[in-house]
Amino acid sequence: MKSISFGICLVMFAFGSDVINVVEVKTPSGWVRGYEELYNETQVYRFIKIPYAEPPIGNLRFKKTQPIGEWKGVEGVRDVNAPQCSQIEDRYPGFDTLVTDEDCLYLNIYVPGKISEDRNLSVMVWIHGSGFMFGGASQYKPQKLVLGGDVIVVTINYRLGLLGFMTLHDPLAPGNYGLWDQIEALRWVQNNIAAFGGNPKSVTIFGNAAGGISVSLQTLIPSNKGLFQRAISQSGVVSLFCFPTKREEKQTNDLVLKKTNCECKGDIAETLKCLRDLPVENLTATIKLLEFQSPLNVSFVLGSMGPTIDGDLIKDNLAYPKSWDDDVYSFFRSIDFMSGTLDGEGILVYSMLSQEIQERFNLNISERVPVSILCESFAPSYVNTVAGNFPELTQEICELYTTPDGDDEQSRRVTDFQSDSLFIVPSNIMLGIHAKNNSQAKTFQYLITKPTPFPFFQEPPSWFKGAGHGEDLHLLFGVTSDHVSEETLKKHDLGAVERLSKNVINYWAIFTKNGDPNSEGLPNWPSFNTLSKEYAILDTPIAEGENLKANATVLLKKVISKGNFTFNNVKDKNSLCSSHSLNVRLDKIN
Predict the structure, then answer these.
(1) What are phi and psi of 285, to 5 degrees?
(2) Which domain holds residue 407?
């Protein structure tokens, strides 16, 4: 085999009765071991549990990510999975249950076919979602994307929850550690991916939900220039109400310090020492105790468990430009950008209103979501959060999303409001910022409308239509069907779902290579512009649309325009950054 500058060694290993090809690749960071596997009878090499930073343990807990030096020996494991970062125990259907460990700053690399530097393959770096609180790199199996797109895929871990984002607004504990982890992983890719046959000048970052928000945040950090050339934000972008307020951060910190007996330690250094001396399980258990609202509120507030304005990495609200000449937006507008959503993102409402809550307030959202939830809870809460006390705007929202067409349609309209306010309109706005008078980079939008038999949370109610939040993951990654009933599988045309999956993989991979998803043999995908706002409707068949949710965008931008989002002196607002965010006064519901 031809050797390359970094060095490759192929070995035959016997594991029990199996004989498998093992490849050892010498990178600038050290030797890495990978293993051959066959996916649909085609060769893939996977490199699991590669360290990209120093373990964030001991004195490195609540610190910016530290680069890893060159290691001795060979890194990489035979196991299919690497540990996920310490977190609340949680698992989404169809994904592996992973071991958790605070020593978690690892990434996985998947390479199609042979390993050779001469291949110069484009690279996709996946940033997982789940509210900045859950998940791990090894839950996502990208083999069909790797082979279908002929690209290298890298999946990364980053610190989550309090360990990833708790801030004391002090240089000793600035917060945003999870975002710094993502950046360090991208730096490692730049320095090492050529050894695996990857092209460091053709890197696309992509992610879903909190991963999509992370992607958009990284595009708005000018110092990231050169780390990636393209970005895909799926079901999540940074928005003007993305960051927790200082009130929320203080509530989080006060409760954590009280529950861990680390309060009243005199100064920041002593407080941090107390927090660092704790077993990690004490911190992750504390998160379960966070309840900031009254019992009549259903709320999932990030507090110090999501991105924060730290004055360093994130200096201000990043969603709306104060000046088109600002360096932040110059970098963002220099890269090719794709953003999109699913038409049923608002099904999260169904997942968040538990059976216990429904019983307490005499609700049965399996049968219907009453208009009172919209007009007396969701809409006023949204307006108050974003703009303040404007009852006339609440009334306009209520009128736009109220329908006389029966309970099923009204239920769908309520979830449409959640889709529009938390996902679609923020995406529309960010796409408009990117596309306006932009001749140096390309902009694309999509809407997925094809449901799959693999709901991200639980099987939706009978009144729900469309593709629910997280169903795009099945189109890109391998998801098991163990949790899906035979009856549900029979309701879907699995062949059509797989055809869409193949098209989505091709679009994503071609965009990664060229900055434009269009190619011979694929239906046309129009570029997004600020006049017609064209987008691709990803379904079977694929179609084109214009000006997605135009009325909702006009109205919700009107609400947004009333807000005063000076985050250095932020008003008392709730965070809506996470796809899991919800703030509902249930005592208002009839």
Answers:
(1) -70, -30
(2) 327-588
